[in-house]
Amino acid sequence: MIAERFPWLTAIVLLPLVASLLIPVLPDKNGKRVRWYALGVGIADFVLMCYAFWKHYDTSSASFQLVENYAWLPQLGLNWALSVDGLSVPLVLLAGFVTTLSMFSAWQVDRRPRLFYFLMLVLYAAQIGVFVAKDLLLFFIMWEVELIPVYLLVCIWGGQKRRYAATKFLLYTAAASIFILVAALAMALYGGGTMTFDIVSLGMKEYPLALELLLYAGLLIAFGVKLAVFPMHTWLPDAHGEASAPVSMILAGVLLKMGGYGLIRLNLELLSDAHIYFAPVLAILGVVNIIYGALNSFAQSNMKRRLAYSSISHMGFVLLGIASFTDLGINGAMLQMISHGLIASVLFFLAGVTYDRTHTMAMENMGGIGQAMPKVFALFTIGSMASLALPGMSGFAGELSVFLGVTTSDIYSSTFCTVTVFLAAVGVILTPIYLLSMLRQVFYGTGAELKCNLTDGGLQNQEAEEAVCFGTDCVLPNEAIYRDASPREVFIAACFLVIIIGIGLYPKMAMQMYDVKTVAVNAQVRQSYTVISQENPGVYAHGVLIPEIAKAEVTPVLANLK
């Protein structure tokens, strides 16, 4: 009885936040105690959320569960309202998993370790808060709180252009998030009566179509920036290129998914009428993202920037799934977010492992390091295979679901579906080319003449074959810094890869958490389309994109969804 009334979600959000406040007073001289403390807090919070969802979350229900509602600032209509459903549970688990392992990967941070782990724990709490907030104003607050730790983590522990990258990230995301606040206020104030930001109550309101379109456009900008949708993506390559590996893991693994979550939670679920008019735009933007990101990856000589543009390409599949009007498509969008969160995190982690050895991200200076680091080479290869959607990996399951969702859509015309799928397939073909090219440049011998000078560094009396030469660095074998992955690094990568392969072999492992919810959301969207198409048969350019849907498809699903 006590367990059922226990505020599980509040504990999950506040545990890392409260724990972070104890870091300044924690006795520690060299930072070792702080890092173990932060890791322990991360593991404890992840275990807590796993237990709460295992015992108290029902996967067969599409409604909000574990609901907590406490008055915070009643004069402003702000409540501490938390809940989870099929959209939030998998992303909460993803955030906890990725952030905990990212703190474990930051073992070598020796510059201001207290501040670093303090910011990581605050970021942990803010991410979870975004996914569990049931109050739209609370959602906005958590969204803004998340920006500050990321800005400082990039600005202090980043590369040479870290201040530029951090400032660009903050300006883009902070300016775009204003649209969330404006939309929240507009929806809360519309219709008079008591002002409320409760997402369920806002979803019950009937907004004029013109207002819905404006709200949808504003939220699309806010979430599109976070999801790195073209042309609002330019902050991402700079942030990834300058951020440290643990921060890049969170950027790619969790923060991008906040944009996709917002699109499904607010744009689809609350503004389903406006989605009918914007869906083709999302599909087109998705195709542009896929091809644009893949093509730009070829032009990158910096490993992390190549992976960043790869993330932009993969987020295009999320947009396609959201725009598909099919259960399988939206389901695939969710699976793609989970899959990419895991795959991108392990790839950026391994990029950081490689950087620790080579002290460069320039791929042309790394050729041949696979000989000295076979474990890193093997782990990087498996991660790359998952990213290029090799069957048996989670990336394949996610992208295939989106493809089938768009292909089988009865909303769009066959011409639109064919062109969309064909162009998206071009991106799928480009993905293995730039990923395998990256593996070749980094781990295989390039065939280029070594630029290092064996007469430097006391090597002149050694035989050439005794020296270890990679790129522009030459050292003796017993002095080589190109050591292979440590047990800690192998463990971190294995944690990601086991789940990636597990989901690839048995996708239901992830799908069962959100399948009922995505079906309910799509049912609401299709009902909105049915009503609009009957009132306006000319929607989507007189049937060029979509045929007319039969009246028999009208079903009273709104009440069930809410």
Provide a brief overview of the structure.
By secondary structure, the chain is mainly alpha-helical. It is built from 22 helices and 4 strands.
Give the SSE layout:
Elements (H helix, E strand, L loop, with lengths): L1 H4 L2 H14 L10 H25 L8 E9 L4 E7 L4 H17 L7 H20 L3 H22 L4 H28 L9 H6 L4 H19 L7 H8 L2 H24 L3 H27 L4 H20 L4 H32 L15 H14 L6 H14 L6 H30 L24 E3 L2 E3 L11 H19 L2 H4 L3 H21 L3 H5 L14 H4 L1
Antiparallel strand pairs: 1-2, 3-4
Helix pairs in contact: 2-3, 2-5, 3-4, 3-5, 4-5, 4-11, 4-14, 5-6, 6-7, 7-9, 7-10, 9-11, 9-12, 10-13, 11-13, 11-14, 12-13, 12-17, 12-20, 13-14, 13-16, 13-17, 14-15, 14-16, 14-18, 14-20, 15-17, 15-18, 16-18
Which terms summarize this structure?
single chain, 562 residues, mainly alpha, two-stranded antiparallel sheet, 4 strands, disordered C terminus
Describe the structure.
It is built from 22 helices and 4 strands. It has helices at 2-5, 8-21, 32-56, 89-105, 113-132, 136-157, 162-189, 199-204, 209-227, 235-242, 245-268, 272-298, 303-322, 327-358, 374-387, 394-407, 414-443, 487-505, 508-511, 515-535, 539-543, 558-561; strands at residues 65-73, 78-84, 468-470, 473-475. The chain has a two-stranded antiparallel sheet. It has a two-stranded antiparallel sheet with strand order 3-4. Helices cover 67% and strands 4% of the residues. With 562 residues, the chain is mainly α. The radius of gyration is 24 Å and the shape is globular.
